[in-house]
Design a protein that fits this description.
It is a single chain. This protein has 413 residues and is of the alpha+beta class. Helix content is 60%, strand content 9%. A hairpin with a 5-residue loop joins β8 and β9.
């Protein structure tokens, strides 16, 4: 059962669109070895846009208990026996201090860490506030951030070495297969050099003709009133991080073509974490790296069903799947907007998304927490996608009504 995401002040609005599951704990063991397993910590993390290890650690800080989290098994443990109601109260405190925006009270924040100071940047209103640095959890967040940066540097080094190895192998194969293309390559290089020079000259001319004040104003508006140039740079950075993550996954696939589904899911988790992206972005990384512009007619959703199903195992992740397809058809391949209802039908046929998720998505008229980063999806595109999907939603509603009618007739008989 889903409930409204709320801090220490309850939100009783039944139409409130920010939802999360209730905390579910399972007590195991006895005596000194008794412990509570957080069964749905992954779903909680996806709903709150926070990492599962961080949520687990918060419970440990509040309850004075040792905690552990295994990324391989996604198993979170808090020592001691704790009932669900107590855990839910502590989670509300976590949401109040580390999730909700201090200005608009919406759970659309993400961390920005600089000089050992943790701030929350709100994607809804644009405010930036510092978290309570006296809380013990902040030390864990900083340590995780430092570790993620180091893992990212290590992964980049490995990827760079692998890229050089692949490039060297391709160059060798190319030289062995055809030595007569040297002239064509030289011509191509000259053409590219000429094109770059022309683009640079056009840009210089435009900058020269455009007053500096106009250039400054062009870069200040982004997504909502009062947005700043700093915000635009941050969003561009997030988009760039996603693109780099896709390239890293493409390279990994080339070197690991016989990997199992679990290996792929694990690698996507590693790439997402080291790229400082949200857990929900794992699906976007996979789609952006694997799906081509012909994926609708090529039946890629059916071919990749096993992996997609492993990436979307809960109701919240079903919403993330739809959001990822929004980005794929709306931003990466805009020509596919008209085929978006076909994509949704394929998700339904392959049982990758439940019917209820489609209704919730179509009924949400605002940009929501399930969409990709703002720099990767604009509101106009989202509206076009929903207009395109309207016939599919209508068909779903009619099918549901017919099903309910048949059930009523069976009861009367």
């Amino acid at each position: 059962m889903s409930i409204n995401i709320a801090g220490l002040t309850p939100v009783d609005d039944p139409s409130y669109r920010y939802k999360m599951p209730r905390v579910m704990g399972k007590v195991e063991g006895r005596g000194n070895g008794i412990k509570t397993v957080l069964i749905n910590v992954i779903d909680l993390g996806l709903a709150l846009n926070r990492e599962a290890p961080e949520i687990t650690k918060f419970f440990g800080c509040e309850l004075g208990s040792q905690t552990s989290y295994s990324a391989d098994t996604e198993r979170a443990i808090v020592n001691g026996a704790h009932i669900d109601n107590d855990l839910q109260k502590h989670l509300s405190k976590y949401i109040e201090n580390f999730v909700l925006c201090k200005n608009c009270r919406l759970p659309e924040t993400h961390y920005k860490i600089k000089d050992g100071l943790i701030s929350q940047k709100c994607l809804a209103c644009g405010s930036k506030d510092t978290v309570d640095m006296t809380h013990r959890l902040t030390a864990f967040i900083l340590a995780q951030h430092k570790r993620a940066k180091q893992e990212k540097r290590d992964a980049e080094k490995i990827a760079e070495k692998a890229d050089k190895k692949v490039k060297k192998s391709k160059d060798k194969d190319k030289d062995d297969s055809n030595h007569g293309d040297a002239g064509d390559e030289e011509t191509e290089r000259k053409k590219e050099k000429k094109d770059k020079k022309e683009k640079r000259e056009k840009k210089d001319k435009k900058d020269k003709d455009t007053p500096s004040k106009e250039r400054k104003e062009e870069g200040t508006v982004f997504g909502f009133d009062g947005a700043t140039e700093e915000h635009e740079e941050e969003e561009e950075s997030d988009s760039k991080a996603a693109e780099e993550a896709m390239e890293r996954y493409k390279l990994w696939i080339e070197l690991n073509q016989t990997s199992s589904t679990q290996d792929i899911v694990n690698e996507l988790r590693v790439i997402q974490t080291t790229s400082s992206l949200r857990p929900a972005d794992r699906i976007i990384i996979f789609l952006g790296a694997v799906f081509t512009e012909e994926f609708v007619t090529a039946g890629e959703i059916k071919k990749q069903r096993t992996i997609l199903a492993a990436l979307a195992t809960s109701a919240i992740q079903h919403r993330h799947m739809i959001a990822a397809m929004e980005w794929l058809c709306g931003s990466k391949y805009p020509s596919l907007i008209k085929f978006f209802p076909v994509v949704l039908k394929q998700l339904l046929d392959e049982e990758l998304v439940e019917e209820e998720a489609f209704f919730q998505w179509h009924g949400d008229l605002c940009r929501n927490e399930f969409s990709a980063e703002q720099s990767m999806m604009c509101m106009d595109t989202l509206e076009h996608l929903k207009e395109s999907a309207a016939p599919f939603i209508k068909w779903l509603e009619e099918a549901e009504e017919e099903g309910e009618s048949d059930d009523d007739e069976d009861e009367e008989d």
